[in-house]
Amino acid sequence: MRNPEVDRSSVPRWAPLVFLAAAATYLIARYDDIPQRWVSHWGAFGTPNGWTTRSIPGVFGLLIVGLVVWVVLEIFASVLRARGAPELLPVREAQVRMLRLVSAAMALLFGVLSITLPLGPYVGPAGIVPFALVLGVVPLIVGGMGMNRALREVRSRGHGEAVEGYHGLHYSNAKDARLWVPKLGGNGLTINFAHPWAWPMMGLLLIAPVALAVTVAVTAGR
Predict the structure, then answer these.
(1) What is the pTM of this model?
(2) For position 42, what pLDDT does the model report?
(3) Which residue has the higher pLDDT, 208 or 218?
């Protein structure tokens, strides 16, 4: 059962729903002002190469995606709370707070894009990309700080061995010979950045998606 004393979520679970509902309400109120067609995608050099038409999926599609993201992240949050050692409860609560920060940021991004793309003000990729980057980075920074506080709390309670090598959003332990180690939440693996093969492995993992992204961008820009 969840301990309310450690449930210090900085973002209520319903906050993303408020952002999405507010955007949906605004779009419904101004539905007749929405143009029949608007730019929704740009190529590598800022050239429009994708358009959306005024329809229920076109107008509200991003908000539906935001709702799906909220549901998925809330499921992850429930799983995190339901499993794991009791001494790691502060860490799990910190992970839940980070998930909800990410969910709120995504809902805000989808809400803003749902309104500005068809109704303006027009900002284009030069405004959208930095905005999206900020909304992507801030939750990770704030969440990482929360994870560090939770780890310090666990160590102060005498359970340092359970979190040895974990540092906020990464794992680094020179005494651990493993390259891949379990995540604190128990879902999946993470890299031991003290391992000599850590950065070569990261490079290998990044080559494929970067190459794919470059290929798609170049192709779309032609």
Answers:
(1) 0.81
(2) 84
(3) 208
Interaxial angle between packed helices 89-119 and 124-156, expressed in degrees from 0 to 180 and rounded to the nearest 10: 170
Is the Cβ–Cβ distance between 100 and 18 less than 8 Å? no
- Please, what is the Cα angle at 200 between 196 and 204, to 5 degrees? 150
Q: For residues 113 and 62, is the Cβ–Cβ distance under 8 A?
A: yes
Q: What is the pLDDT of residues 207-217, one digit of tens each?
A: 866 666 666 55
CA distance 89 to 52: 45
Average pLDDT over residues 52-69: 94
Radius of gyration for the alpha carbons in the chain, expressed in angstroms and rounded:
21
- State CA 15 to chain mean position distance: 15
CB 37 within 8 A of CB 54: yes
Contacts with 144 (C-beta within 8 Å, 6 or more apart), sequence order: 98, 168, 169
Tell me the two tokens of residue 91. 């860490």
Strand-pairing partners, residue 171, are: 166, 192
Give Cβ neighbours of residue 189 (< 8 Å, ≥ 6 apart): 180, 181, 182, 183
